[in-house]
Amino acid sequence: MKRLYFQGTNGAFSEVAGHKFFKPSIKTIGRRTFKEVFDCVAGDPESYGIIPIENSLSGSIHKNYDLLLQYRVWIVGEITLRIKFDLLSLPGTKFTSIREVWSHPVVFNQCEKFFTRYPELQPIPVYDSAGAARILKSEKNKNVAVIAGPQVAGLYNLECIKSGIEDNAENFTRFFIISAHKKFLSGKNAKTSIVFGVRNVPGILFKCLSIFALRNIDLTKLESRPIIGKPWEYLFYIDFKGSVEDEVCQRAVENFDEVVSFLKVLGSYETKGVV
After folding, report:
1. I need a labelling partner for 6 at 20 to 30 A (CA). Which of 24, 63, 194, 211 fits?
2. pLDDT digits (tens, 9 = 90+) for 14-56
3. Domain-located, residue 167
4. Strand pairing class (144-148; 122-125)
């Protein structure tokens, strides 16, 4: 059975997304940090990893963009998951008795309206929302609730006190499937991710992007990240529809390589849309 590494504890959204991408034929293995996920995938060539890369409310997960550049891994798939948050507690806990709420800091950012409505509740950051539920089950503290996905309640014998407390119902997270094996998908459903650097000359970014525009290649994402040790210099990450195995995109990337100072193709991969 295939192995899939994810950041977090059983019940994490990454694990849910992984099962939906691979269906039942995957064994999920949780790790504490994103770096550990990359380490495991790089050191276990027959495995896969799943990492969140962007949330529709809180934006990009910059750490994972940096790790994609640092490690020799490839993006081989993409899936988008609808994110719903519930307030969970030990059975029999009354809402009025809750003093602390545990979850991942990013989750708090996506539930700001809830904490504005209930300022007496103190948010306590934990490395993972499902991990917070596991700790609560162990410690049996009825003055604590956790914010996590609905799938977590049954796993850790918790009850839902309030449902759907995220700031906006249009809350989605995009995940990349990564592998140590290079495998480029071709065809109309493919998407490609690249990272590049440019020389500091006038109009260079416009020139780079026009290479895609002139070929009617649809850019779906543009992200900049600072280059460590080089103040005010940046790398740019681009997602576009199509594959480097297809002629029009292949020619665009070849032309692109002539005008940039650095280029790495991160993958041409299958995208499964929203699940």
Report:
1. 194
2. 999 999 999 878 999 999 999 999 999 999 989 999 999 999 9
3. no
4. unpaired
Pairing outcome for strands 100-103 and 59-60: unpaired
Pair 151, 203 in one domain? no
Catalytic residues: 173, 175
Contact (Cβ atoms closer than 8 angstroms) between residue 59 and residue 109: no
pLDDT in tens, 160-204: 999 999 999 999 999 999 999 999 988 778 999 999 999 888 899
Query: What is the number of structural domains in the chain?
Result: 3
Among 179, 214, 240, where does a domain finish? 179
Q: Do 110 and 171 contact (CB within 8 A), yes or no?
A: yes
Two structure tokens written together for 236: 């740019």
Output the domain CATH number for residue 22: 3.40.190.10
Q: Which residues contact 75 (CB under 8 A, 6 or more apart)?
A: 68, 176, 177, 178, 193, 266, 267, 269
Q: Is 229 left (phi over 0), alpha (psi -120 to 50) or beta?
A: left
Q: What is the chain's length? A: 275
Structural domain boundaries enclosing 138: 86-162
